[in-house]
Amino acid sequence: MAKNKQKLEWVITDDFGGKDNVALMVALKGWDYTAYIKWDGCCEIKGNGKQIDMHICDVPQFIDVLQSLEDFRMSNIYCAE
């Protein structure tokens, strides 16, 4: 049985555009991930200093890719969690 997943918390570190926030800089608390979220939905994500450019519309497919990688990992690699 899977353990409860850790709740991930993004925090705003900077905003651009004043009252309407046309862009946000955010960081994932406790992790080495940051993201710049632009008004059009495009996200520039950085993890360990490497950037991944992704439009928000691509996120569901990216989640599927990551989940399939996790499923593969759990099926093929022993990991004491």
Explain what this protein looks like in three dimensions:
The chain is of the alpha+beta class. The protein has one domain (10-76). It is built from one helix and five strands. The chain has one helix spanning 59-76; strands at 10-16, 23-28, 33-38, 42-47, 50-55. It has a five-stranded antiparallel beta sheet with strand order 1-2-3-4-5, with no helix packed on it. The radius of gyration is 15 Å and the shape is globular.
List keywords for this structure.
81 residues, alpha+beta, 5-stranded antiparallel beta sheet, 1 helix, 5 strands, 38% strand
Task: Please render the helix and strand layout as text.
Layout (H helix, E strand, L loop, with lengths): L9 E7 L6 E6 L4 E6 L3 E6 L2 E6 L3 H18 L5
Antiparallel strand pairs: 1-2, 2-3, 3-4, 4-5
Please outline what is shown here.
The protein is an alpha+beta fold.
Shape assignment: globular
The first-to-last residue Cα distance is: 11 Å
Strand order of the largest sheet: 1-2-3-4-5
Protein structure class: alpha+beta
How many strands in all?
Answer: 5
Oligomerization state: single chain
Task: Report the radius of gyration as a whole number of Å.
Answer: 15 Å
Number of domains: 1
Contiguous runs where pLDDT drops below 50 for at least 5 residues: none
What percentage of amino acids are in beta strands? 35-45%
Q: Please give the largest β-sheet.
A: 5 strands, antiparallel
Count of helical stretches:
1
Fraction of helical residues: 10-25%
